[in-house]
Amino acid sequence: MAKAKFKFNPDTLLFEKVKYSFKQRLLRFLPFFSVTMAFTLAILFFGYGYFESPKINKLTQEQAQTILKLNVMKTELSKFEEVISDIEYNDDHIYRTYFEVDPLNTSLRNAGSGGNVNNNSFSNSRYSKLILSLDNRLDHLAKKLVVQSKSYDAVVEMAVNKEKRLAARPAIQPISIKELTRFGSNFGFRLHPILHVVRMHAGIDLTCPRGTNIFATADGVVKEAGYTSGGYGNKILVDHGYGYNTLYGHCDKVFVKPGDRVKRGDIIGAVGSTGLSVAPHLHYEVHINGNAVNPINYYANDLSAEEYDKMISLYSNSDPSFDIN
After folding, report:
1. Residue-wise over 291-325: b if at least 16 C-beta within 10 A, else e?
2. Rounded mean pLDDT, 173-188
3. Does residue 50 belong to any structural domain of this protein?
4. Do 69 and 18 fall within a single domain?
5. Does the structure show a pLDDT above 70 at 310?
């Protein structure tokens, strides 16, 4: 309890008790109140960093653990991205190459890349950049896995149909190596013997006696058989499926008709010199998915080492002006 104050009264020669009005008492209390409030606020603002409550301390620890987990996830995600990159490379350059199909194009593999740009759930977080980066990368990885899964489904189907695919692949010479006397024009650009301009020669010319048997080089269905315009004379076109087609030109005789199914090694015609040709020979083409390829790469499956050497020797001495087609 505050002590009472007394003041000496010279008139009465007595000490009289001092009485204060409410306003005076308020003014006397105000400095104490101001100092107290200032001290309290100082503790709240400056002491907060030094005196954490158990709850705040727990939240701080949980936040630190969350950031640590996010950084660990970032490292692991990088490893997964490397793994899917290796898988994609093997798919394009091993499995699809083995089955002679085109690799998936980059735009398809990266379909939907860019992540979830509409995810604003963490836009106000101090760690929003890290979180959104991980979210986008996870979204991209998930989409790449879907594309790769579908690609592997196609590869598995190719493997299941391996025997049929191999049977459809041109793999033997269309005439016996024993009957082959020389190569005419080989595959590639050459000086046209009539027009004297450089033009593409889409096949190889195999010189042999008239009447030499022509063999189907793979299983397939005859699409064309007989005389055609364009310089091939009597022509046979066989669709082997899986994108393979073979063409046999300048035939003397044709032993098949459109719609016939043939097996590799079946005799389908006889060598001649019909159409634009200067001597008996077979013009032979191989097409994959509509594109002409060098038949020499689909020719030597059943040759012995000696026969292969003979073929290479004849091929190296080919005559690019042998015939028009």
Report:
1. ebbebbebbbeebeeebeeebeebbeebebebbbb
2. 80
3. no
4. no
5. no
Residue 322 has pLDDT above 90, yes or no: no
> CA 170, CA 216: separation in Å to the nearest integer?
8
The residue type found at 314 is L
* Tokens matching residue 6: 């007394």
Q: Looking at residue 95, what DSSP letter applies? A: I
Is the per-residue pLDDT at 64 higher than 70?
A: yes
Do 90 and 128 belong to one domain?
yes
Task: Looking at the structure, tell me whether residues 40 and 113 fall in a common domain.
Answer: no
**Same domain flag for 39 and 66:** no
Segment 201-219, tens digit of pLDDT: 788 888 899 999 999 999 9
Question: Could you tell me if 270 and 303 lie in one domain?
Answer: yes
Same domain, 39 and 90: no
Partners of residue 7 on adjacent β-strands: 16
Residues 186, 311, single domain; the answer is yes
How far apart are alpha carbons 96 and 152 in whole angstroms? Answer: 10
Q: Which residue has the higher pLDDT, 301 or 245?
A: 245
- Beta-bridge mates of residue 103: none
Query: Exposure of 128 by Cβ count < 10 A (0-12 exposed, 13-18 middle, 19+ buried)?
Result: middle
The answer to whether residue 165 is domain-embedded is no
- Name the token pair of 215: 């063999």
156, HSE (Cβ side, Cα atoms, 13 Å): 6
Q: Is residue 11 assigned to a domain?
A: yes
Q: What are phi and psi of 208, to 5 degrees?
A: -165, 170
3-state secondary structure of 284: strand
Judge if 203 and 305 occupy the same domain. yes
Mean pLDDT, the chain, whole residue set: 80
Q: What share of the chain has pLDDT > 70, as a percent?
A: 74
**Overall domain count for the chain:** 3
Domain CATH number, residue 244: 2.70.70.10
Under 8 Å CB-to-CB from 205, ≥6 apart: which residues? 183, 184, 185, 186, 281, 282, 283, 284, 318, 322, 323
Which residues constitute the domain of residue 62? 57-160
pLDDT value of residue 271:
95
In a domain, 115, yes or no: yes
